[in-house]
Design goal:
- The chain is built from three helices and 19 strands.
- It has helices spanning 50-53, 56-65, 96-102, and strands at 4-10, 22-26, 38-39, 70-75, 118-122, 133-140, 143-150, 153-159, 164-169, 172-177, 183-188, 194-197, 203-206, 211-213, 223-225, 231-240, 243-250, 253-263, 268-272.
- Strand 9 (164-169) and strand 10 (172-177) form a beta hairpin.
- The termini are far apart.
């Protein structure tokens, strides 16, 4: 029969399955107190890189140091489920015998597709935070994740050209890495009230009086777009190919709404009064 070993990545003492197929591994063990498990800083290892690679330092250790035909990875609170059904969840964990049977007809074993979303909470400590929250679901091909952002929703735009997602709430303007969802920058108590993205991947924001454009990923490098009038209560309406329709009033002349059209290919304005 093929030999099977599944490491259990952990950073704390916890109950472990009794089956000898499982090898509890203390990940990120370099410089940490010994938990009594196999440590990922022994043999050929990259334990010191755990802050960057998380449980993958354990998988690297297994690759370089375990002698087995099949190597797997589980987490100390997440295991492969076997056929047994009891009230004790640890009695239901996949056994070595079950794994060997499954591997007779399969080269790789994975869990079933999850029926929940990975959720990230974006909360920045500040005495000025409101009690409002914004919940946004992001989808990319087969991947779905959700973010909870402090503040009331104002808008969100994504640019693959710049590699960023910009989320605008009443409390913050968040600039996220499009690939990992990590915060790259943020701007607190933003004056901006609306956001959109051009067909060329440039993200625009407005404070109701003017328009600024992300030239790159940095908020401090945003460029100002010169308007043809002194606008007030400016709002982005819609895109018609390369042309952005904008509604506003002219400053000190609030009797009639004005429509502005900006062609982002030529950067020419059209005013409809």
């Amino acid at each position: 029969m093929p030999s099977v070993k599944i490491i259990i990545a952990t950073h704390k003492k916890y109950r472990m399955p009794d089956d000898e197929m499982y090898v509890p591994v203390q990940v990120g063990a370099e410089g940490k107190d010994d938990l009594g498990y196999t440590r990922d800083n022994t043999g050929d290892n990259i334990s010191f890189l755990n802050p960057q690679f998380c449980e993958l330092t354990g998988l690297y250790w297994a690759w370089k140091n375990l002698d087995a035909d099949y190597v797997g990875l589980a987490h100390y609170r997440r295991h492969f489920r076997g056929k047994k059904k009891t009230k004790d969840p640890f009695d239901c964990v996949l056994t070595s015998k079950e794994a060997e049977e499954l591997l007779k007809d399969n080269d790789i074993l994975v869990t079933k597709r999850r029926n929940y979303y990975i959720e990230k909470i974006y909360d920045i400590k500040s005495p000025w935070n409101s009690t409002d929250w914004t919940w946004i679901k992001f989808t990319e091909e087969d991947d779905i994740w959700c973010g909870e952002f402090r503040g009331k929703y104002r808008g969100v735009s994504c640019s693959t050209t710049l590699g960023i997602i910009v989320v605008l709430t009443s409390d913050y303007m968040y600039v996220l890495d499009i690939y990992g969802g990590e915060i790259m920058e943020y701007y607190s108590q933003p004056e901006y009230v609306d956001i959109t993205v051009t067909p060329f991947g440039k993200i625009l924001v407005t404070d109701g009086y003017g328009i600024e454009m992300f030239a790159n990923t940095k908020i401090s490098d945003m460029e100002n777009i010169v308007l043809p009038i002194n606008a007030d209560n400016l709002k982005f309406v819609e895109w018609r190919e390369n042309i952005l329709k904008i509604s506003c009033f002219e400053f000190l002349t609030w009797g009639k709404e004005i429509e502005l059209y900006l062609n982002f290919e030529t950067m020419e304005w059209l005013i409809n009064k």
